[in-house]
Write a structure and sequence with these properties.
This protein starts with a strand and ends with a strand. Strand 4, helix 5 and strand 5 form a beta-alpha-beta unit. The mean pLDDT is 96. By secondary structure, the protein is α/β, with parallel strands linked by helices. It is built from twelve helices and 15 strands. It has two domains: 108 residues, 2-Layer Sandwich (Enolase-like, domain 1), CATH 3.30.390.10; 222 residues, Enolase-like C-terminal domain (TIM Barrel). Bound molecules: magnesium ion.
Length: 336
């Protein structure tokens, strides 16, 4: 199987700030597998939070070969052979996983939604994310996001109430809150009580990932559902966090691809947990891949491509907030 890769710098429309820090550009790695002139594309958007970066990924992949992967193998054979070559870097595992799913789908004329039994009729709405910012900028961003019926607001700073009040001056749209590990138990209790009066749908990762006991205590008293993000990397985490959270946020860059994401969906459903699909800042390659699973989940937050100004790909579209999947085989994406 032929393999190549390239790097790409995504530029953000606005500097994006969360409880952990800010970014205005994001470097991603694109990988390509080819059989008989048919090419599948995948993407790694590495995150500091998980100690991954583009440089380490390139160092890793520039010496890799995939000659041991036979073109005639099954998709699972390909994934089993390719993913361990990522050396544990989940965003790189994801890049391999997406490229191989895309290639498999194209060779078999099957879209990934069909592959995973996701019925397009059960479309999912995506939220649009507003990062932490000054009052005036938040107001401007909320107005700019007029076409998105659902907002996700980043909190976990010293002026959380001020941020919500600023938003509520401009719109009464339902809001999802992501604290990105920014609160302690006492703050979490106060904020969840207060946010429950502010047309907030749920709270994502209120406490730090190593405060699972406190998160379980918060869940007992919180009027709002708690969704695990930093506490839920892959399917192995689900049994150990199910008592502390009402749901999980699945991200391809954390879990290592569509195969693992689908496993997480099944495990969360068995435990009657809510399921959200999230993202990093990514091109339409990874966003579209995640969107193919969106008919299977409760909440989507797949706006990482919309936050950029130079996405090189076309894929999933957002119409009145709803994710609209492309028709083509595989991931169904095209170069712009
Ligand atoms: Mg989050």
């Amino acid at each position: 199987m032929e393999f190549r890769y390239s790097t790409y710098r995504l530029e953000l429309k606005h500097t994006f700030t969360i409880a952990r820090g800010s970014e205005s550009v994001v470097d991603v790695v694109l990988v390509y597998f080819t059989i008989d002139g048919v090419t599948g594309v995948g993407e790694a958007a590495p995150s500091d939070r998980y100690h991954e970066d583009c440089l380490s990924i390139v160092e890793k992949i520039k010496i890799l070969t995939f000659n041991d992967i036979t073109d005639s193998g099954t998709l699972d054979d390909w994934l089993d052979a390719a993913l361990p070559k990522a050396g544990g870097m989940r965003s790189l595992e994801n890049a391999f996983d997406l490229a191989l799913h895309d290639l498999y789908g194209k060779l078999n004329s099957e879209s990934m939604a069909d592959h995973f039994g996701a019925d397009r009729k059960n479309g999912c709405m995506t939220s649009f994310t507003i990062g932490i910012d000054e009052k005036d900028k938040i107001r401007a961003k909320v107005l700019e996001a007029e076409q998105y019926p659902l907002l996700k607001i980043k909190l976990g700073s010293d002026h959380d109430k001020e941020i919500i009040n600023t938003i509520r001056d401009v719109t009464d749209k339902p809001v999802r809150v992501d604290a990105n590990e920014g609160w302690d138990l006492e703050q979490g209790k106060k904020m969840c009580d207060w946010l429950a009066e502010q047309n907030v749908e749920f709270v994502e990762q209120p406490l730090s990932a190593d405060s699972l006991d406190d998160t379980a205590k918060l869940r007992e008293v919180s009027p709002l559902e708690l969704i695990a993000d930093e506490n839920c990397i892959d399917s192995k985490n689900i049994p150990e966090i199910a008592h502390a959270f009402d749901g999980i946020n699945i991200k391809l860059m954390k879990c290592g691809g569509l195969r693992e994401a689908y496993r997480m969906i099944q495990m969360a459903r068995e435990r009657e947990m809510k399921i959200m699909l999230g993202c990093m800042v990514e091109t339409s390659v990874a966003i579209t891949a995640a969107a193919h699973l969106s008919p299977l989940v409760d909440y989507a937050d797949l706006d990482g491509n919309i936050l950029t100004i130079n996405d090189p790909f076309d894929g999933v579209k957002v119409e009145d907030g709803m994710l609209v999947l492309p028709d083509g085989a595989g991931l169904g994406i095209n170069l712009r």
